Amino acid sequence: MRIPLNRTSQEPIYLQIRDRISRLIKSGSLQPGEQLPSIRALAESVQVNKLTVIEAYGVLEADGLVFARQGAGYFVNNFASASNFANHGIATPERSSTLDPAQEVVIAKKWGESFLDQYMTSLQAQQEPDMIDFTSGFPRPSGLEDLAKIARRAMTQVGDVLFSYDFPQGQFTLRKQVAQMLAWKLGLEVSADDLIITNGSKQALSLALQYHLRAGDWAIVESPTYHGAIALLENLGVRIIGIPMCKDGMNLELLEKYLHSHRPKLIYTISTLHNPTGITTSQAHRRELLSLAEKYHCHILEDNAYEGLNFAPSPAPIKALDRSDLVTYVGTFSKTLMPGLRVGYMLATGKHYQALVEQKLLHDLHVSTVAQAIASEYLASGHYRRHLNHLRTINHQRHDAMLQAMECNFPDSVRWTVPQGGLFIWVQLPDRTPMAAIRQAAAEQKVLIGCGKPFFPDGQGYPALRLNFSQSLENIDRGIALLGDLLKQFLLRSERIT
């Protein structure tokens, strides 16, 4: 295997080796099941230390591209399977979504439920002993020992920088690392100069919406969608159109109708592991959505906060198809590392970049230097890839456990999505389900559930629940069994009344 190395480059040698082998695998030059050169052979071939090859192979394994067989070496993973993570102990789910809502387009006329109330309810639940919290949008804590080590290393590197201000667009090293991550993970060919580091993805959304929209403008969202985005749009005085979500994503026929009739300035979409439904749209759906945006000169804000939590490979983001600077892409480490780190990023190309940097400067100067250093060290050390692999394995087990518990305990009239990753399962309930009563009864038995109403513009949508499956297996079994009993009781009572 020939691997040319640039020994004068700032990119570490092990990453150059990783990138070269990654390209050989993705191009088909290395076939599934094919054995990689031994560590010693490759080290001698490219004239590097064996530890460098071990580190490169370790990163490839964490990326899901290769797997180790004890005593035999490293082999190319099997991409013919439904998931390229199968060799890491993640089972391929056989279930399919039963979601089938009859839903109309929503033209929002009033403000929805308070975002602060929802946020505080979830935070307060974390303080309650023995509370089973299915409402939060957070992953469960893990890898705290690694975090402590990485934080100590990061602090030694920032040094005197702590005593001065930093660049509003973020530290160059971190932006370069994020650009490299987006390239190998998503196929996004961007540079550090296209990226802005933000205080989580929420700030990135806020900056983008304030830049592209003014009070009275029309904006299109999926219905349901992330309730934080609805709150931001309402706060700006923007008029919202909610296009129904189908099994394959936003209804594109209805989208074109309202692009033509209302000429909105922006489409907000969550293309991968949609919040709250968990749906990941196909490549064809993404191409058609971009084509419609180009036809009607409408900007797209693509929010991929849950990218990296996917159990199977996802299609390239809409931004990867964008040739007209119509798409602003937003991501974060809050859902994959820890919410409290508050490090997100925005990819904004062309004429929009400088104006967004200036807007970021007006907001808060820059993201915490310490937080950026910790995120940078996670990426540089290879811990992030290993952490993601571990997190996906745990999440997949809990995802399957919740689906199985729902199948055993929920009434036949209840439907739900089967996401290929993320944190949530979206549950569609029959019409006239007494949501407030069920929520109250569950809370009294220390099970907190998130009702679907806040995820619809104007709260106009079908009865639904968003359930976070990142709880422990014991809490999932206990909480879903209790919730199933409550649904049966209240739905039976509702049927008798009608």
Automatic annotation (TrEMBL):
Family label: In the C-terminal section; belongs to the class-I pyridoxal-phosphate-dependent aminotransferase family.
CDD domains noted in UniProt: AAT_like, WHTH_GntR
Annotated GO MF terms: DNA binding; DNA-binding transcription factor activity; pyridoxal phosphate binding; transaminase activity
PROSITE patterns to which the protein is assigned, alphabetical: HTH_GNTR
Organism superkingdom: Bacteria
Name of the protein in its database record: PLP-dependent aminotransferase family protein
Keywords: Aminotransferase, DNA-binding, Pyridoxal phosphate, Transcription, Transcription regulation, Transferase
Occurrences of domain HTH gntR-type (ranges): 11-79
Species of provenance: Tumidithrix elongata BACA0141
InterPro entries membership: Aminotransferase_I/II_large, HTH_trans_reg/aminotransferase, PyrdxlP-dep_Trfase, PyrdxlP-dep_Trfase_major, PyrdxlP-dep_Trfase_small, Tscrpt_reg_HTH_GntR, WH-like_DNA-bd_sf, WH_DNA-bd_sf
